[in-house]
Amino acid sequence: MTLGDDVLGYLDAKEDRLVDLARDIWQHPEVALQEHRSSRLIADELTGAGFSVEMGVAELPTAFVAAWGQGKPKIGILGEYDALPGLSQKVSATKEPLEQGAPGHGCGHNLLGVASLGAALAAKAAMEKQGIEGTIRYYGCPAEETLIGKIFMARAGVFDDLDACLAWHPGYVNSAGGQVSSLAMNSFRVNFHGVAAHAGANPQAGRSALDAAHLMDVGVNYLREHVVQNARIHGVITDGGRAPNIVPPYAQVWYFVRAPRRAQVKEIYSRVLEIVKGACLMTGTTHDVDFVTGCYGLLPNEAIGDLMQGKLRQVGGPGFGDHEREFAKQLQGSLPPGVIRTDADAALKVSRHGVSEQELGNPLCEGIVEPRREYCALPYSTDVGDVSHITPTASLSTCCHALGIPLHSWQFVAAAGSGIGFAGMMLAARAMGLTAVDLQTRPKVLKAARDEFEERIQGETYVSPLPVKSVPR
Q1: Residue 406 lies in domain
Q2: Does 106 score more than 90 pLDDT?
Q3: Cβ neighbours of residue 3 under 8 Å, at least 6 residues apart?
Q4: Is 427 helix (H, G, I), strand (E, B) or coil?
Q5: What CATH number is given to the structural domain containing 434?
Q6: How many domains is the chain partitioned into structurally?
Q7: How far apart are CA 202 and CA 242, in angstroms?
């Protein structure tokens, strides 16, 4: 038997266990930095399989690194397991929370962490059976939804010695590689400090922190016309005062600044900070800034991506059954008009051939879609971007929800806890497991990946967006 046969055979035998783990994490969702049960479930599975596990890396209690083997190549596989607040949902085509107000896996990270686990376990089993030297590492990455986990892990240097890294995310298309990137980002809070006073009797004695927050918003609105086209600036007022008859002595806003390039984010961020100063001058207030986190955009690596795409073709589609197809149609029935068409247009951006009109009649992507070769930056941010600026990194997606289902929705939670999500998860595990063992035995692919990486970074060294003394929160 070949290495590939050993990988697929292992995952065939392990499928029920992996589905049970993914369902368990789905049934017990934990939000960013609180994933104590979920991270321990995965870490214990790796320990039981002979991996050495270091918990609490990068001063994050729910982050860990699990390693097996020795020497090079050193191949990393990224796993996530955090849920989103307020998205609790049953496996149902109508909105029915399991627990009102509780979190839910509206991005499918219950599937993400477990598919990566399956890939790491299968690669280890195949390498051990065939006597292949090299190292497999599983990275337990918390708090992706708040862009915390991999950012702090990257600053701690845990990815520095990897030869390559593999990632994936639940989606609609079954595809890997191509020239798909994401947006770099800064996340920060501005605290405005004023002077309290009676808003009716002596407002002249007050200095309104809320006025400063509003004026910042006005300034940022005008800035939007004068930034690069793909930039995004969005924010919320998290604290605007306590009562109308008190001039607010304190206010806080929380902003994201996104753009395709890290340098563009830094430039826009500096202009926003100048607007903050102006708002304070106009209102007689002061301010301070809490920098929450920042990230880089994804750096594509076609050498590894093409290898992953080949493994997807080798495995084939997710293998949905009639039950999954019917449930997908029911979930689509809960969507507003036009959403499915919009999602099809989004799928077109990341694939060479897009989604045909005929395929729109099928709510699930059952074949393998060829990736787009022209560069495009999708309008989201991910901390995988930082890893991709440290070591050659490629990612794949598999169909884990029906066409039109938005990320971060109750419909996605329902799909992630159903046979739809589990089928997509197993396809991802198989493709990544096959890719990992190939990278262990094909030095020419690794060299091509490294050469491409060096060409793309153009001599730049990764610099963490985080201030030196910042702590996760």
Answers
A1: 3-182+297-457
A2: yes
A3: 126, 127, 130, 132, 437, 438, 441
A4: helix
A5: 3.40.630.10
A6: 2
A7: 18
Q: Is the pLDDT of residue 470 over 80?
A: no
> Mean pLDDT throughout 395-408?
95
Alpha-carbon distance 131 to 145, whole Å? 38
Query: Which residues have CB under 8 Å from 399's CB, separation 6+?
Result: 171, 172, 173, 174, 317, 318, 320, 364, 365, 366, 420, 423, 424, 427
User: What is the distance between the alpha carbons of residues 317 and 313, in angstroms, rounded to a whole number?
Assistant: 8
First to last CA, the chain: 48
- Alpha-carbon distance of 77 to 429, in angstroms, equals 11
Same-domain check for residues 18 and 130: yes
The mean pLDDT value for 419-438 works out to 98
Q: What are 141-185's pLDDT values in tens digits?
A: 999 999 999 999 999 999 999 999 999 999 999 999 888 899 999
Which among 263, 295, 327 is the end of a domain?
Answer: 295
429 and 450 within one domain: yes
Q: In percent, how much of the chain has pLDDT > 70?
A: 95
- The angle subtended at Cα 231 by Cα 228 and Cα 235, nearest 5°, is 135
Let me know whether 29 and 79 are in one domain.
yes
470 lies in some domain: no
Domain presence at residue 468: no
The domain boundary residue, chosen from 274, 295, 316: 295
Model confidence over 336-368: pLDDT tens digits? 887 887 777 666 665 655 565 556 568 999 999
